[in-house]
Amino acid sequence: MKHPLVSLSVQIVAALLFLLAFVPLLVLSFHNHPSAADDYCFADTAVRFGFWQAQKFYYDGWTGRYFSNFLVHGNPLVWGWYSGFRLIPVLAAAGLFLAMYSLLSELLRGRSLKTQLLTTGALFFLLILAMQSMVEAFFWTAAVASYTVPTAFTLHLLAVMSRWYRLRAGLLRTLTTIWAGFLVFAIVGSSETSLVLLVLLLLSVFGYRLLFLRIADRFLGFLVFMALVSAWLLFRAPGNAIRMGGNEHSGEFIASFVSSFIWLGKSVLKWLVQTPVLPLSVMFIPLAMRLVRMDSPSRPLFHLPPLIVTVLYIGFLAAMIFPSYYGIGIPPAYRVMNVVYLFFLLGWFYVLTVWMVQAVRRGWLRTDTFRLPVWVPLLAGIWVVVSIGFSIPLKTMYTDWLNGDAAIYDRDMTERYRQLTQGSNDTLRLVPIRVYPPSLFVEDIKDNPEHLWNRCQAGYYGHKMIQLETVTTAGRQPVSQLATHP
Questions:
Q1: pLDDT at position 2, please?
Q2: pLDDT of residue 244
Q3: What is the spatial distance between Cα 437 and Cα 399, in angstroms, rounded to a whole number?
Q4: Residues 6+ apart with CB under 8 A from 230
Q5: SS3 for 465?
Q6: Nearest Cα to Cα of residue 427 among 395, 394, 454
Q7: What is d(CA 165, CA 12) in angstroms, rounded to the nearest whole number?
Q8: What is the per-residue pLDDT for 486?
Q9: Model pLDDT for residues 291-307, shown as the tens digit of each residue
Q10: pLDDT tens per residue, range 430-474
Q11: pLDDT exceeds cutoff 90 at 215
C-alpha cells in the first residue's frame, strides 16, 4: 500500500503542475486583442452583408466549415464588443479542461473526484508542455473556432456516448441522443481534422460492436449517419474546390498517405523525448491496474482487443494529419498538430490501459503483488523538471508575461483601437506596435493598404484606407504563422 505522505506529495505536485500551465494562460488572456489575420475579415463581412449572408459567402467561396464559420462570424467584433477577445483564451482553456475532465471522469469511473481532477490537471500540464502553438490554440479566435472548440466537443461527445448506455429509456436518454447528434454535426462542420477523426472513430466503434459483439447499435448508427451527412455538407461546399485548387500538390493520395505516417513518426519521437510521458506511463500502471480489475465499473471501456486498438490509435493520428497533405500538399500547421498531440496523449494512456487488461488476464502482471520501483518517481521528477526547463510553450508564455511584452502589446493595441475608432478618414496611418509577443500575436496589418488584412480592418472601422507606416523599431519583428494555413 502506498504511504499517505507519498500519495499527498503526488497530489500536491499534480496540482502545482496544472497551475504552472494554467496561470499564465489566465494572465495573458487579459492582454489579448483581435488579430488582423481573419478576425476583422469575418467581422467586416458579417457587419457589412449580414450574419447569414456571410456564411454563404464563405461556404461558396472558400471553405465548407459551416460550424466554425458560424462561430467566427459571431465573434465579439460583430457585436461591437472589442474587450470580448480578452475572455476568449481563458474560456477556451477552461472549456478544454472541462471537456478533458468530462471524458476522464468516465474512464476513471469509480475513482475519487480528487483522482479524476488531478489526473485531468496532470494531462493538461502535459498538453501545454509540448504544444506546438499556444496562440493558435487559445488566443487566435479563428483557430480556436476551427480546432480548439471541436476538439473539446469531441472529448465531451465521447463522454456523452459512454453515459448514454447507462441511461434508462425515457426523456433524458432521448435528449442525450439529440445532444450527441448536435455535437457530431458541430464537430464535423468545424475542420477537416476533426471530421476525419470523428468519422473514423464512430465507424470503428460501430463496426466493432457489429462484427465482434453482434450488436446492431441504433444509437451509434444514428451518430454515424449524422457524421456522414455532416461530412457531405462540408465537402459539397463550392468553396472547398476553390481552396484546394490553389495548390498544385493537393489531391495526391498516395504521397499524402505516406507523408502523414512519416510526419507522425517524427512527431511522436519528439514528444516522447520532450515530455515525461514514458516515466509517467510507468507511474500510471498502479492506477491502470485498479481500472481493469473485475470489480471496476470502467473495466468494460478497456476490455478490447489490444492489437486492434493499437493499430486504430496509430491510424487515427495519421488520419488527422492526412487532410493537410491531401488538401494543400504541405505539412500540417501548428494548430493541426496541437490537436494531434492531445489525442496522442489521451490515446497513449488509453492504449496502455487496454494492454493492462491483457497483461493481467494472461498473468504477466498481478494486481496483488505489483510494486512500483522506487526509482520510477525519482526519474519522473527529474524528467518533469528538465522538460519544464526546455518547454518552449511555457518559456514563451512566462517570458511574454514577466518581461512586460504582453503589457506593452496590450497598451499599443489599445492605443491603436482608440485611433481606429476616432471617426472615419480617407487614409489612416498607423505605426507598428513595439513588440510582438508570440503567445498573443499572429499577424499585423501591412504597409500595403491593399493587403487583405488592411482592407478588412479599414472596412470594419469605416476608413477608406489603412496603412502601416514603415519605421525601424527595437521590438521583435512579427513571424507569420500563416505560411501553413490548412
A1: 52
A2: 61
A3: 9
A4: 184, 185, 188, 189, 195
A5: strand
A6: 454
A7: 35
A8: 35
A9: 988 888 999 999 999 99
A10: 999 999 999 999 999 998 999 999 999 999 999 999 988 876 544
A11: yes
pLDDT of residue 367: 67
pTM of the model: 0.93
Query: What's the residue count for the chain?
Result: 486
Pick the closest to residue 139 from 404, 400, 417, 451 (CA basis): 400
Residues 12 and 14: their CA atoms lie apart, in Å, by: 5
Over the chain, what is the mean pLDDT? 91
Q: What is the CA radius of gyration of the chain?
A: 24
Which residues partner with 430 through β-bridges? 468
Measure the CA–CA gap between 98 and 102, rounded to whole angstroms.
Answer: 6
The set of cell numbers assigned to 437 is 509577443
Q: Residue 32 and residue 397: Cα distance in Å, rounded?
A: 13
Q: Is pLDDT of 4 > 80?
A: no
Grid coordinates of 118: 488531478
Report helix, strand and coil shares of the chain as percent, to nearest 5.
Answer: 70, 0, 30
- Let me know: does 300 contact 230? Beta carbons within 8 Å: no
Identity (one letter) of the amino acid at 34?
P
Q: What percent of the chain is predicted at pLDDT more than 70?
A: 93
Q: Provide the pLDDT for residue 372.
A: 82
d(CA 149, CA 92): 7
The residue ranges of every structural domain in the chain are 247-371, 400-468
The answer to whether the CB of 332 falls within 8 A of the CB of 482 is no
DSSP 331: P
Query: What cell was used for 36?
Result: 488582423
Averaged pLDDT for residues 66-92: 96
C-alpha count within 13 angstroms, C-beta hemisphere, residue 97:
24
Pairwise CA distance, residues 443 & 420, whole Å: 17
- Residue 334 CB contacts under 8 Å (≥ 6 apart), including other chains: 132, 133, 136, 481, 484
Helices 113-129 and 277-291, packing angle to 10 deg: 160
C-alpha cell at 269: 519521437
Question: In this structure, what C-alpha cell is assigned to residue 443?
Answer: 499577424
Residue 294: Cβ-neighbour burial (10 angstroms; 0-12, 13-18, 19+): exposed
